[in-house]
UniProtKB/TrEMBL annotation:
It comes from the Bacteria. This is Porin family protein. It comes from Marseilla massiliensis. InterPro entries: Beta-barrel_OMP. Keywords: Signal. Residues 1-22 form the signal peptide. The lineage of its organism: Bacteria, Pseudomonadati, Bacteroidota, Bacteroidia, Bacteroidales. Residues 9-205 form the Outer membrane protein beta-barrel domain. Pfam families: OMP_b-brl.
Length: 205
């Protein structure tokens, strides 16, 4: 949790540094994600994760025309079934994700516009860390994750935004470990990564 507060303080400091020259809007953001899990070996079968995210968001426009930054603190919940038929396990990932995106806005009149956005995302696991199968296989989730967001969207009536984002994992999301029954030790078999498609809606006050 200490890292969560550190990242939040960084966002607040960034906003404060440019507050005197920027137009700031606060709002609420939520949406759905579909995550493609991939492993470096075929130790376990997997399916796409589905889930949702919600939390406060803020955006501000810098003096340069059309250039701005948005940030959010999102509670993210994802579930996925992994394993062979008859030995399936549901992974439940709970995290606080903090995306910070540089964005470029193109106005289409006073009531609408489109934007392009990209930037880093910091994730902090606040749920279970380890999930165990019956056959001596564990899936251990990482405590923290780093990824990159690339997306676009539309702005409507100066308050509502609809966005589409592809989240690219930069490192392992978790790892599969198998118990060695001979010496009773855990051996890492493969690392897992999770990229996600996201659709979101945000309302700014």
């Amino acid at each position: 949790m200490k890292r969560v507060f550190t990242a939040i303080l960084f966002v607040v400091a960034l906003m404060t540094a440019t507050a005197t020259q920027a137009q700031i809007k606060f709002g609420l953001k939520g949406g759905l994600n579909v995550t493609n899990m991939s492993f470096s070996t075929d130790v376990i079968d997997k399916s796409n994760q589905t889930g949702f995210f919600v939390g406060p968001t803020v955006k501000f426009t810098l003096p340069l025309v059309g250039l701005g930054i948005d940030a959010a603190a999102l509670y993210d919940q994802r579930d996925a079934k992994v394993g062979d038929e008859g030995d399936e396990l549901t992974l439940k990932q709970r995290a606080i994700n903090i995306p910070i995106n540089l964005r470029y806005n193109i106005g289409l009149g006073s009531m609408a516009g489109i934007y392009l956005a990209a930037g880093p995302q910091f994730g902090f696991n606040i749920g279970d860390k380890t999930f165990s199968f019956d056959d001596g296989i564990n899936y251990d989730m990482s405590k923290t994750n780093f990824s990159i967001n690339v997306g676009a969207g539309v702005s409507l009536i100066q308050h509502l935004e609809i966005g589409f984002t592809y989240n690219i994992a930069c490192g392992k999301t978790g790892e599969v470990n198998v118990l060695d029954v001979v010496d009773n030790t855990w051996n890492q078999v493969t690392k897992g990564r999770a990229n996600a498609w996201q659709v979101s809606a945000a309302y700014y006050f």
